[in-house]
Amino acid sequence: MPDISLATVVVLCVAALAAGWVDAVVGGGGLLLLPALLLGLPNSAGAGPYALGTNKAVAIVGTTGAAVTFARKAPVDVRLAVRIGIAALIGSTGGALLAAGLSTEVLKPIVMVVLVGVGAFVIFRPAFGTAPSATPASPRRVLAAIGLAGLGIGFYDGLIGPGTGTFLVLALTALLHLDLVTASATAKIVNCCTNAGALAMFAWKGTVYWQLAALMAVFNLAGGMVGAHTALKRGAGFVRIVLLTVVCALVLKMAYEQWVA
Questions:
Q1: Which of 54, 56, 92, 258 could share a disulfide with 197, CB 3.0–4.6 Å?
Q2: What was the pLDDT predicted at 131?
């Protein structure tokens, strides 16, 4: 357990709860969780890898809970999701191997760029994924999904992480012509695989604060379960406003920490 205050632990647990909810509904829980860990963990040269590793240990619990909830009630092609997930596991393992040497100073600007990119996409494509395609995806589209959503986004998830759920939802919606709820359900299964591959590498490197992760994981699981039920009942449209608010707040906060404080 790192040497951090009780107030910081409480803030991290609240961030884990919110991240689980956001991640289950529309993806992108890491947009909350990783920046919170980067800001909350002791500021040292090795804080970046520990933030990444602890983030994975927390996220895999909430993602798994959401995936189980979705699989029971949403029209998910589990076999296809697993095929994409296996590719994603390979990609995330490779990404995590490279991430072990990154520092917080390198990570923060990258996370900010990712946040701005996701926010811009959500703003300019408000109707994206509102309805599924009437025809099944072609083999070429499935192969593209395995390559891009699996290997490509999986590698990104292991290397950096935040926004992976959102990127998966966007990629699966675009490539397989799914609606956002079905894409989110599929993304949760894929995300479980990327988290598992990355976490295995971080655990091997010894860059996980397990006690802190276990505490935060309880809150992340609760948020993920509630978020999955919310998505199934109401869809992902109303979450866009929440996600944009969070993205803007985090960009401003991290920019202040990076260049002003």
A1: 92
A2: 58
Rounded Cα gap, residues 40 and 38, in angstroms: 6
Q: Tell which residue, 177, 166, 107, has the closest CA to residue 142.
A: 177
165/150 Cα distance (integer angstroms): 12
Neighbouring C-beta atoms of residue 202, cutoff 10 Å:
24
Please give the average per-residue pLDDT across 39-68, as a whole number: 83
Looking at residue 236, the DSSP 8-state letter turns out to be: S
For 25, the token pair is: 């509904």
pTM for the whole structure:
0.76
Which 3 state secondary structure label does DSSP give 41?
coil
Name the burial class of residue 131, with classes exposed (0-12), middle (13-18) and buried (19+) by CB atoms within 10 angstroms of its CB.
Answer: exposed
Q: What integer pLDDT is reported at residue 28 of this predicted model?
A: 72
Q: Which residues fall within 8 angstroms of residue 100, CB to CB, at 6 or more apart? A: 49, 201, 202, 205, 207
Question: What's the CA gap between 261 and 252, in Å, rounded?
Answer: 12
Alpha carbons 123 and 240: distance in angstroms, whole number? 8
pLDDT tens figures, 62-111: 989 888 888 887 778 888 998 999 999 999 888 888 876 666 567 677 77
Q: Cβ distance 92 to 53 under 8 Å? A: no
